[in-house]
Amino acid sequence: MEENKGNVVVRFAPSPTGPLHIGGAHTALFNYLWSKHNKGSFKLRFEDTDLARSSEKYEKSILDDLRWLGLEPDEAPSRQSSRAARHMEILRALVESGAAYPCFCADDASFEHGDHKCGDMDRSERDSRVSQGETYCCRFKVAGGPNYIYHDRLRGNISVPTAAIEDFVLARSDGSATYLLAAAVDDHDFGVTHVIRGEEHMSNVPKQEMIYKSLGWNVPEWVHIPMILDAERRKLSKRLGAMSLGEYRELGWAPEAIVAYLATLSWAKAPVDRIASLEELAMLFDLDSVAHFSPVHDEARMRHFGRVFVAAASDENLTRFCEEAFSSCASPKTSDDEKLALIHELLPECATFGELGSAIMKNLSFAGDLHTETPEWFGDFVAHLALISDADWSSSNIKNALKTFQNNLRLKGSDFYHPIRIFLTGMSQGAPLGLILSCVGRDASIKRLGVPVTKRTTDMGGENFG
User: At what angle do helices 255-264 and 299-311 cross, to 10 degrees?
Assistant: First the structure.
């Protein structure tokens, strides 16, 4: 369906009661892409009516995370709490028109189990009780009738039994507007044409439509995208271990990789074999191709996009990103070619530049205690390796020396390479030994490999079986 270009207005409206998570970022992305696809406007509103839990700290972190992802709002963010006077203005209009009324029931339980007379109360009695300072909230008066039917762009016509919709609260007894009223008023005033939000808000649609219609306002198009589930098919939440965008940032994730991954959740047309730019995604995006089944947050799938992003970096950038790692554990004599060779060996498994740096340090450092028996040939091997001069210390020459020694002793590959790797790095797997030895450097490698020889000589009472 082609929209009216330039007239599309969407909003992302998070509650600043915690950091932004994958689910919220997914909703923000789809709002952003739809606005840009239609050359419209993307707005950000903090729904902070829960003042006790809302925090400016979270407002800042959410805004920082959106900007990090490239989802920049088209105007300064707004706060729902700053519009309290406007909410009360609309509330008074609803009460005056008879669409809403003061309810003197002590709480929801009293309302549900009472005789529901507040909605039919004589106006003079109502005004008298209000003037006497009696506590009340304000409720919307739901008209009886057949099922209430509304349209969702992804799900078609939705039918809800009107009898199941109670007279809902518009304003609490302290005079503050509820989400139902505040969101409806703000979306109308901001000219929102498409309300793109999580499917958990679907139950609010009939009530918010009633508010719109009672005021003679145009109803926005409802688009309820599926919520993202965890591996146990539960809604993602911090309590259940979901990571925030800030935590992904700290781990070194590229925002381009996260955006590319999020785009594939419930949108089958998103590219999966490359990192598409936000501009390209916006050009391709179509609300009508968004599925309405709930996707599962798949870390392995996200890592795929991370690896694609890292692998696309230039050799110059890869070397620059890994400079600190090489400085901490590689020989200063290591050539750029040897560094790049090691980088490209480790690259396929790394989803972030941080992981690549860590992999370099793991492969070039000794991480662990000796935990394998020293072969009898090990001393001879170290002596054989030491025959390579510093000037000839390269991965190709080291590889040839390793192969020559292995063939002379007719050793199986695992019997030969495994103990060398254990004594060199403390790991059972890693990059090719020739590259590791080359980058560690001649003197440091021979010194490190000489430790097990010395240890074996001591353990065997001074007799050298190497």
Answer: 130
Place of tokens 């589930």: 229
Report pLDDT digits (tens) over 321-378: 999 999 999 999 999 999 999 999 999 999 999 999 999 999 999 876 666 788 999 9
Q: Kindly report, residue by residue over 208-221, the tens digit of the pLDDT.
A: 999 999 999 999 99
Q: Which two tokens stand for residue 435?
A: 């590259």
Q: In what order do the strands lie in the sheet with 41-46?
A: 9-12, 41-46, 78-79
Question: What is the tens place of the pLDDT at every residue in 280-301?
Answer: 999 999 999 999 889 999 999 9
pTM: 0.88
Question: How far apart, in whole angstroms, are the C-alpha atoms of residue 20 and residue 244?
Answer: 6
Q: Which residue type is seen at 72?
A: E
- Output the CA–CA distances (angstroms, integers) from residue 303 to 257, 279, 318, 350, 351, in the order listed: 8, 22, 18, 8, 5
Q: What is the mean pLDDT of residues 416-420?
A: 93
Task: State phi, psi for 98 to the nearest 5 degrees.
Answer: 90, 0
Q: What are phi and psi of 235, to 5 degrees?
A: -60, 135
HEC-encoded secondary structure of the chain: CCCCCCCCEEEECCCCCCCCEHHHHHHHHHHHHHHHHCCCEEEEEECCCCCCCCCHHHHHHHHHHHHHHCCCCCCCCEEHHHHHHHHHHHHHHHHHHCCEEEECCCCHHHHHHCCCCHHHCCHHHHHHHHHCCCCCEEEECCCCCCCEEEEECCCEEEEECHHHCCCCEEECCCCCECHHHHHHHHHHHCCCCEEEEEHHHHHHHHHHHHHHHHCCCCCCEEEEECCCECCCCCECCHHHCCCEHHHHHHCCCCHHHHHHHHHHCCECCCCCCCCCCHHHHHHHCCHHHECCCCCECCHHHHHHHHHHHHHCCCHHHHHHHCHHHHHHHCCCCCCHHHHHHHHHHHHHHCCCHHHHHHHHHHHHCCCCCCCCCCCCCHHHHHHHHHCCCCCCCCHHHHHHHHHHHHHHHCCCHHHHHHHHHHHHHCCCCCCCHHHHHHHHCHHHHHHHHHHHHHHHHHHCCCCCCC
What is the set of domains in the chain, with CATH numbers?
A: 9-75+182-240 (3.40.50.620), 85-171 (3.90.800.10), 313-466 (1.10.10.350)
- Average pLDDT (440-465) is 70
Q: 393 pLDDT exceeds 60?
A: yes
Length of the chain measured in residues: 466
